[in-house]
Amino acid sequence: MEFVSNGGALETFLRREYKTPPAVPEKNSSQPAESEYEAFSYGRVGIRPQLMLSFRKANGLVKVRPYALLQGLDSDDENSAFALSFPGLVVTVQGRNLSRLFVFICLHRVAEINEADTAMQFTESESNCVVASLGFTEQYS
Question: What's this model's pTM, rounded to 2 decimal places?
Answer without folding.
Answer: 0.67
